[in-house]
Amino acid sequence: MSIEWQGKSLxxxxxxxxxxxxxxxxxxxxNNIKCMNDTKEIWHLxxxxxxxxxxxxxxxxxxxxxxxxxxxxxLDPFQIYSFSLTLLKNDAAQWERYGGxxxxxxxxxxxxxxxxxxWKNYNLYIQEVFYTESAEKHQxxxxxxxxxxxxxxxxxxxxxxxxxxxxxACATAHKHPSFESEREYRINTSAFxxxxxxxxxxxxxxxWGIREYYTLKLEDDETKFDGLLKKIKVGPKADKxxxxxxxxxxxxxxxxxxxxxxxxxxxxx
Length: 269
Known about the structure:
The protein is α+β, with helices and mostly antiparallel strands. Helix content is about 40%, strand content about 20%. It contains eleven helices and twelve strands. It has helices at about 15-25, 45-55, 60-75, 90-100, 110-120, 140-150, 160-170, 195, 225-230, 245-250, 255-260, and strands spanning about 10-15, 25-30, 80-85, 105-110, 125-130, 130, 175, 185-190, 200-205, 210-215, 230-235, 260-265. The chain has a six-stranded antiparallel beta sheet. Helix 2 packs across helix 6. It is elongated and about 70 Å long.
């Protein structure tokens, strides 16, 4: 919550099917993070901490491995849901990976308005993603090393299970360094926030399998959707006839269509 978003933009790359849902329903979807393209989602931070603890507790490796195995087994049933954003505007890699292979759209959001409505209505906020290589100096590493060596953590976490639950809550903000170029920000649920959402999980069949997601509305009595969405940039491989898109947006109640829509000049092919 410490980030000052005033005057800043964040970008979401997606395809035209998702654009329709956002435009017509004024909502975003928080998808199950285990279905995203990073196979280490959730576990990267925990495994990085495990490596750091093993380095500190060389003579008690089996105890460390057993602890982390048991805790990961307990944490695995937790489901976390996320909506991804980036600082990168009109980026070729983002277009290729997330923007319909270049044939989709990039939505520019007013970051402060988006953060405000997420916090006010859902107790969620935009979170920066950190690309963690080492956890030697992470507080949790120090706590677990103490637990391994003495049987007690330094602070009262209410037990080792709650300490690991807190680590899980932080885990979605940490990814493998190979993703650093994405400069990602996220709106995440956590092990603590899902009960406060008071939203029903949704399911939709896709070609690749079943999508599981929460829908979060992007407007209320104080914040209107058209104030959140600053720009729709059409991808470099998309149909360049955007007149139909403009008429579609007008039909859905948008004003200032000329300023809202533009075509990407990224030379991706």
